[in-house]
Design goal:
Elements: E1 18-22, H1 23-40, E2 43-44, H2 54-62, E3 68-70, H3 73-81, E4 87-89, H4 96-105, E5 112-116, H5 119-129, E6 136-142, H6 155-166, E7 170-177, H7 180-183, H8 188-211, E8 218-221, H9 230-233, E9 238-239, H10 249-252, E10 270-281, E11 284-287, E12 303-304, E13 310-314, E14 320-324, E15 336-340, H11 344-348, E16 353-358, E17 361-367
Parallel strand pairs: 1-16, 2-9, 3-4, 4-5, 5-6, 6-7, 7-8, 8-9
Antiparallel strand pairs: 1-10, 10-11, 10-15, 11-14, 12-15, 13-14, 16-17
Helix pairs in contact: 3-4, 4-5
The protein binds pyridoxal-5'-phosphate.
Length: 374
């Protein structure tokens, strides 16, 4: 079935499990982030690792994003080929083939940037760019405590920045620092303190490098959990938040600046729709969405939407169980049940398309990309 054939269908007519984005909630999130960035004077370069979807990236650009982040070379390629400018690869690459692919993408100034946290990557990039006469924009990538990748702020990072600045074919434009550990700290004040401490390491390093005359114009980082923290506390110049566009049950737990224990700055827009395929036992029913339909990395579980008192339990590859608290009603055989997803990024990665629905009707079908390639 070609994608056009789905347009206008009622969501209940889709084969399940189906990944659906509620366009009203999605557009609300899109606008809320854009308005917040406008108000704080901070740019935003949202992360495509959450949606892997050029159609969504185009809408983020139309809302005012200065570019889009990518986690893999394949994501960066898909975004550039879809006409997106300002694609920042936030992950390290240290093999020549991936470096060559990134340099090949840099056809016009501003098409791509890379966050570089190691001299090996800087050298490989310089060696690939110089013979073809290209100049690649680079951010110094800093590890502010995640122990994932990036240079440690201090003498190592300063030496790396000075080396990048001297290498032919590279142009240092600033720094990247991402504190994943801050993103999910529960309670706004605790999250603010955590992020200020971690991102403060990057800000100090940035000042030191700027004092040496290096271009530190860009300070890129932040997440959905800290979008309203880092621009204020450490002078971040662009926000890389990804999950805000969909939200998930994990993020709902972190609490908002308004004091709510539910993080309600953004609205859950992403759902998986499943069907009750068995109701043989009185105390539970089976739905056709199991561990192949939802990410399982999180302690949070899929949350039945608009089924108060009904709980989901994992029940194998293709199926899940629903049980009901006393007094709550279980759905019946054949009923559709929508679920809020536990962790949006790896859930999206399980689907080759997102049905974009207004109310109950499919308005568009958006392919996801770069799910298998690296
Ligand atoms: C480098 C980087 N930037 C931004 C993000 C976006 O974070 P979030 O989805 O929590 O907004 C991530 C997520 O893992 C990331 O790795």
């Amino acid at each position: 079935m070609v994608f056009e054939a789905y347009i206008g269908l009622h969501c209940d007519e889709l084969s399940t499990p189906a990944l659906v984005v509620d366009l009203d909630e999605f557009e609300w999130n899109l606008k809320t982030m854009a308005d917040a960035c406008r108000a704080s004077g901070c740019g935003f370069r949202p992360h495509a690792k959450s949606h892997k979807c050029p159609e969504i990236a185009k809408r983020q650009i139309a809302a005012g994003a200065i570019g889009i982040c990518a986690a893999t070379v394949a994501e960066a390629e898909a975004l550039v080929h879809a006409g997106i400018n300002g694609v920042l690869l936030t992950s390290p690459i240290v093999d020549y083939e991936k470096v060559r692919r990134m340099v090949a993408l840099a056809n016009k100034p501003g098409t791509v940037l890379l966050a570089v946290g190691h001299l090996l990557e800087a050298r490989l990039l310089s060696e690939a760019a110089t013979p073809v006469g290209k100049v690649i924009d680079v951010l110094l990538d800093l590890d502010v405590g995640d122990r994932r990748f990036g240079a440690i702020p201090g003498p190592d990072a300063v030496a790396l920045a000075e080396n990048i600045d001297k290498l032919p074919g590279l142009r240092l434009r600033g720094i990247q620092a991402y504190s994943g550990k801050s993103a999910h700290v529960a309670g706004f004040e605790a999250r603010l303190a955590h992020s200020r401490e971690r991102m403060g390491l990057a800000a100090a390093c940035r000042s030191e490098l700027a004092a040496k005359g290096l271009d530190m114009g860009i300070f890129s980082g932040a997440s959905t959990g800290t979008y309203n923290i880092d621009p204020v506390t450490v002078g971040l110049t662009e926000i890389q938040a990804g999950s805000y566009i969909f939200m998930d049950t994990e993020y709902r737990l972190v609490g908002s600046s308004g004091g709510s224990s539910v993080y309600n700055d953004f609205r859950p827009s992403l759902k998986v729709i499943a069907t009750v395929v068995s109701a043989a036992h009185g105390d539970c029913v089976t739905v056709d969405a199991g561990i192949k339909a939802f990410a399982t990395d999180s302690e949070s579980l899929p949350e039945p939407f608009r089924w108060p008192g009904v709980r989901y339990r994992r029940f194998g590859d293709e199926f899940g169980h629903l049980t009901a608290e006393t007094g709550a009603s279980l759905p019946r055989l054949g009923d559709r049940v929508a679920f809020l997803v536990p962790h949006c990024d790896p859930t999206v990665n399980l689907y080759d398309r997102v049905y974009a629905a207004r109310g109950d009707r499919v308005e568009a079908v958006w392919p996801t990309v770069a799910r298998r390639e690296s």
